[in-house]
Amino acid sequence: MGHGIAYLFAAAGHEVGLYDADHTVLADARTRMAAAAATLGRDPAEIERVRFERDVARAVADADFVIEAVPEWLSSKQEVLEQVEGLVSKTTVLATNTSAFPIARVTARLHHRERALGTHFWNPPHLVSLVEVVQAPSTSEVTVARTMALLADAGKRPVHLRRDVPGFVGNRLQHALKREAIALVAEGVCDAETIDVVVKEGFGPRLAVLGPLEQSDLVGLDLTLSIHRTLMPDLDRTAEPHPLLVKLVGEGKTGMVAGEGFREWTAPQAEAAQRRLDDFLASRARAEAARAPARAAEESDDDSQSTSGTTGGAS
Ligand SMILES: NC(=O)c1ccc[n+]([C@@H]2O[C@H](COP(=O)([O-])OP(=O)(O)OC[C@H]3O[C@@H](n4cnc5c(N)ncnc54)[C@H](O)[C@@H]3O)[C@@H](O)[C@H]2O)c1
């Protein structure tokens, strides 16, 4: 994530210092950024705005904004932010790219917590526009505003989350779906492949243009309520990781990397799945970049009009 985040800010015109404890990762980062630039059809010279530093103090010197993207271990994140706080000014924003830890726990050891918050990028950060900006109880409004502006200016789609809940919004939604998917397979309703077909060929494609609450408004909340009265008592409510998931991991079936997870994967099948995803995200990012001026005009138009009711027939 670190090289992708560094690249997107460099492409937006910022000077960036990138540090990794593993210096081979730093060497590799330049190549990966060049691949990102090629995917987006951008000038690779933009990568020259990145300084690849072998010393963390040099990487963050004079920085207005620092984002940590070390592995998802609470103590590592706390240590890195604590170290960085000793190297930057009191007004430098300190952000964590944690996927799920509450921000207040990641930033607990800082002296000036008002300038700390979560910036949850999605992978790969240069291709997915959403960034969840997570405000912890101690985060100041100024810090949120500066972060939202910086991200929007870099072409991202920042959303402000006012409460620091584990998993934020995106991962809570994604894992709520996974909970039911795993339970359906465990109960023998269908196999894992069928779950994926139902999502990819059913409601998945429309999620990119119509979110779940927009879709509820479209079909009518009375219909949504009626479906919920039938479904809610029946949906999975396992309070722990599902036993099927625990069993598979215990057996070493950790997914594509192991050749088996919920489904079996040969190496070429796994590579093809990754390529399919990369190609899709890259073409979507290119199309969005081409459409950006028109969308900005549409949005400013929408802002100046009141909303009106819509009827329709999506399910
Ligand atoms: N991969 C994703 O899809 C994704 C998406 C959103 C958020 N995240 C979050 O982003 C963070 C990073 O994830 P990733 O997938 O890039 O992990 P990664 O393991 O690929 O990269 C982490 C890097 O941090 C370096 N590192 C470890 N300790 C360090 C230290 N003390 N100082 C400096 N560098 C150090 C490692 O050498 C490694 O290169 C995690 O918190 C993860 O949960 C990941």
Short key terms for the protein model shown above:
315 residues, alpha/beta, five-stranded mixed beta sheet, 50% helix, globular, disordered C terminus, binds nicotinamide-adenine-dinucleotide
Instruction: State the major sheet.
Output: 5 strands, mixed
Mass-distribution shape = globular
Strand-residue proportion: 5-15%
Task: Give the low-confidence spans.
Answer: 305-315
What ligands are attached or bound here?
A: nicotinamide-adenine-dinucleotide
Q: What structural class is derived from the secondary structure elements?
A: alpha/beta
**Total number of helical segments?**
12
Architecture overview:
The protein is of the alpha/beta class. 50% of the residues lie in helices and 10% in strands. It has helices at residues 2-11, 23-40, 56-60, 74-85, 103-106, 141-153, 170-186, 192-207, 212-219, 221-231, 243-250, 267-303, and strands at 16-19, 50-53, 65-68, 93-96, 116-121, 130-134, 157-161. It has a five-stranded mixed sheet, sandwiched between helices. It has a two-stranded parallel sheet with strand order 1-2. The two termini are 36 Å apart. The model is unreliable at 305-315 (pLDDT under 50). The site of nicotinamide-adenine-dinucleotide (NAD) has 19 residues, from helix 4. Nicotinamide-adenine-dinucleotide binds next to helix 4.
Provide the fold topology.
Blueprint: H1 2-11, E1 16-19, H2 23-40, E2 50-53, H3 56-60, E3 65-68, H4 74-85, E4 93-96, H5 103-106, E5 116-121, E6 130-134, H6 141-153, E7 157-161, H7 170-186, H8 192-207, H9 212-219, H10 221-231, H11 243-250, H12 267-303
Helix pairs in contact: 1-2, 9-10
